[in-house]
Design brief:
about 425 residues; five-stranded mixed sheet
């Protein structure tokens, strides 16, 4: 019987396309911006990649996700937050779900969803900009359960609304809530005080609360489940710093403060884990820091804290940098005009190269190349090279307009890119 099963597995593996892969959550299946797909077109045609399909969207910044032939994207039309399911290969509409919202952005940015959906099994989860967490059936869009964290935990709308993506560990869905002490809502968000709900774990099937942990307000980073010193560990880069916690119990393991002095500053980049080391980066003042947690003791390897801005190693805004063979690549800089793509040596923080005036962008790694999408719709193919910036192809995607703040998504041979009120699917790997 075992020999028969082995033969069946071999036949199936040959029959399946080599590039087949879903992208069910933020930054992909491994939550690090890395795709395992192979065989991408390189260089790209002079006119750019072939457009397979496109659709009009409402407002919002969240990237799409894919699972089992479906694509899910979140946006806002009028006074409704909406989650839509489509056929990933064709863009055909499958269903729509929406709920009313009163969220308004205090800085004037559009009030659509910031966080992408998360898919697992027959459920899809969405965390809206107003703090509403909902669970739907993937096939029908029918609501399974919903929690209003603003009402339940006195979640203040933060700087730009709720924007972290939850992570699933076993039966738990772990969400950065960052609720505040109940009382008269302050006019100035800087007066908000945390209430030990930095992270809240929900039963993913029912929405029942299992634990709350961390005296931390919300940030825009998303939790990461990893292994440190042989032990499963949760990491969350909150408003004030890095939380290490047991994902099943919420028990605090360690805390490392890391935030700029400016009250109007956010931590948005996910922690990057390499072995027992963790890289943090932000762009409002303190820059990057590499921590070593070997042996269960937290030690700084290097930090940007005392450096002038021009000398800092890595200052990522909303994008999460990507590690490849001892080097880290990312978009560094707070503003469009001062941003660059750079490569640093992880162990030392030394900048190996930087390509200036690239605008703020997000990177996705696939088949030995980075795909960079700038906030103005420039799509660039860059070969992984720790010694120099090696651009392979570049073009401005027609019809893709600012702001393109969603990271590129690679799934089953297609490249999905989102800009202002539009989503496109481009052919990245030729169909067999």
């Amino acid at each position: 019987m075992s020999r028969f099963l082995a033969v069946v597995a071999l036949v199936l593996s040959v029959a399946l396309p080599l590039h087949a892969a879903d992208w069910p959550t933020f930054l992909g299946p491994t939550r690090d911006g890395v795709s395992a797909e192979k065989g991408i077109i390189t260089p790209w045609p002079a006119k750019g990649l072939k457009k397979v399909w496109e659709c009009e969207l409402g407002i919002g910044f969240a990237p799409p996700v894919t699972a089992d032939g479906r694509l899910f994207h979140a946006d806002r039309f009028g006074d409704n937050v909406r989650l839509t399911a489509r056929e990933a290969a064709t863009g055909k509409l499958l269903w729509k779900y929406e709920y009313p919202t009163e969220y308004k952005d205090i800085y004037g940015y559009d009030p659509g969803p910031r966080a992408c959906p998360v898919v697992e099994g027959d459920r899809v989860y969405l965390y809206g900009p107003d703090g509403v967490l909902c669970c739907l059936n993937v096939a029908t869009g029918k609501e399974v359960w919903k929690v209003d964290t603003k009402a339940k935990y006195f979640f203040h709308q933060n700087f730009f609304g709720a924007g972290s993506v939850p992570v699933i560990d076993g039966d738990l869905l772990i969400l950065p809530v960052g609720g505040s002490v109940k009382g008269p809502r302050p006019v100035d968000f800087r007066m908000v005080k945390p209430n030990d709900t930095g992270l809240v774990a929900f039963d993913k099937k029912t929405g029942a609360v299992k634990y709350a942990t961390g005296d931390e307000l919300a940030s825009y980073s998303s939790p990461v489940i990893t292994t440190l010193n042989g032990k499963k560990t949760g990491l969350y880069f909150g408003r004030g710093g890095l939380m290490g916690f047991d994902p099943q119990t919420g028990k605090s393991e360690f805390y490392y403060p890391w935030r700029a002095r400016n009250e109007e500053s956010v931590n948005a980049s996910n922690p990057v884990v390499v072995g027992d080391r963790v890289l943090l980066t932000e762009c409002y003042g303190v820059g990057g820091a590499l921590l070593d947690l070997k042996g269960g003791k937290l030690k700084e390897v290097w930090t940007d804290k005392e450096k002038d801005a021009g000398d800092q190693s890595l200052m990522c805004h909303w994008n999460t940098p990507i590690h490849v063979n001892g080097f880290v690549y990312g978009s560094s800089g707070r503003h469009t005009e001062d941003s660059d793509i750079r490569c640093i040596e992880l162990a030392t923080g030394d900048v190996k190269w930087r390509q200036r005036r690239t605008k703020r962008c997000s990177l996705t790694l696939v088949d030995g190349h980075f795909i960079s999408l700038s906030e103005y719709g420039d799509l660039v193919l860059i070969k992984v090279n720790a010694t120099k910036y090696e651009e392979v192809s570049k073009y401005e995607v027609p019809g893709l307009e600012y702001p393109c703040w969603a990271a590129p998504v690679v799934s089953n041979g297609l490249l999905y890119v989102r800009g202002k009120e539009k989503l496109m699917a481009l052919e990245l790997i030729p169909a067999k």
